[in-house]
Amino acid sequence: MTDKRDLLILGGGLVGMTLALAAAKKGLSSHLLDRADPANLTAEGFDGRASAISTASWRLFRHVGLEKVLEPHGCDIAAIAVLDQMKRGRLDFRPEPHEGTLGRMFANRQLRLALHQAAAEEPLIEWHAPVEVVARERGEFGVSATLGDGRVLEAALMVGAEGRGSPSREEAGFKMASWDYSHRAMIAGLDHSKPHENVAWEIFYPDGPFALLPMLDGPDGQYRSALVWTVDEKDAAGVLKLSDRAFLAEVYKRMGDLLGELTLNSARSSYPLSFQHTAKIVEHRLALVGDSAHGMHPIAGQGLNLGLRDVGALVEVLDEAGRLGLDLGDAQVLAKYEKWRALDGLMVMGATDSLTRLFGIPGKTASAVRRLGMAGIQRSGWLKRFFMDEARGISGDLPELLKA
């Protein structure tokens, strides 16, 4: 006797886990598989990264029941300030008081803890981790995954949520547009003597953005921010080897006295930056979500939010198919999901890549032209509104789970 479920979700990261929970809220069951040990994923110090959760993504978390457990751990983003190398011509995005925030910052560890707890308590989710998938099959009437211990898990639809190196995507033969930026993102947690006032700073240098993201105060009331500093690949090893004092001196050079005196509150880490996008995100009984479909530069902090919009759209399409009595793996059902997500994915990927290249042009003339453009946006009410709506994730054709 087999335990055949609606979904076979390969990848239990932030997007895959949210998908399983959102599907369960619509009565859809899933096998959720991940090769990593959950205890390692939630261990202190495993992942020092933080994520900006947009307004729309927060609505999704609220709809799947995570609001109460997550809210105490999120730091509001009240405004975003954009600078070109600390030169004059600052661009500010700040919603009106009645519009709420531009999003919330969460440590990735806190997101994982909340998702893992909710998944463990949800009877419609059969969570398998850590496991190794040795074979994937997509047949006429269903899909299956064979595990290293010989177990075979079956479902109606396979979902690839393994991230950038997705084996599901590779086995299916999806064609990818991809390139390496030859840069790395340096990640660290900072304590500082001045309050951040809930402002996220994005300072652009030719090597890439230098971001300071507001976090909740530390246990002793220390002001805290997350640092995401893009450096050239050839310089990355040297930056990581710097003493804490030398590292902070380099950081201070790039941000001046914005946040006052600095100390590190975490270990430093880094990861390579690349672009990868597949226009086609469905195949026979297979759908891709998150970084399996589109991995982008963190320049605008939209990678996770784009994946969560995939989740909302896929769940809505599958819920509608289920209520109509359709096969969840039906080609027309999956084509609807692909059509819905195609334009949004392409626009966000194109915008982040264009910003990366635009601000990467060196020289005084290029900087002057950029700052002239920023000044124009600063004076334009409708352009600022457009960019704020994009940052909040509330523009375009939103799935119901991402609406208020």
TrEMBL record:
Pfam families: FAD_binding_3. Keywords: FAD, Flavoprotein, Monooxygenase, Oxidoreductase. Coiled coil: none annotated. Its cofactor is FAD. GO terms for molecular function: monooxygenase activity. Residues 6-321 form the FAD-binding domain. Pathway: Cofactor biosynthesis; ubiquinone biosynthesis. PANTHER family: UBIQUINONE BIOSYNTHESIS MONOOXYGENASE COQ6, MITOCHONDRIAL (PTHR43876). Belongs to the UbiH/COQ6 family. This is FAD-dependent monooxygenase. The lineage of its organism: Bacteria, Pseudomonadati, Pseudomonadota, Alphaproteobacteria, Sphingomonadales.
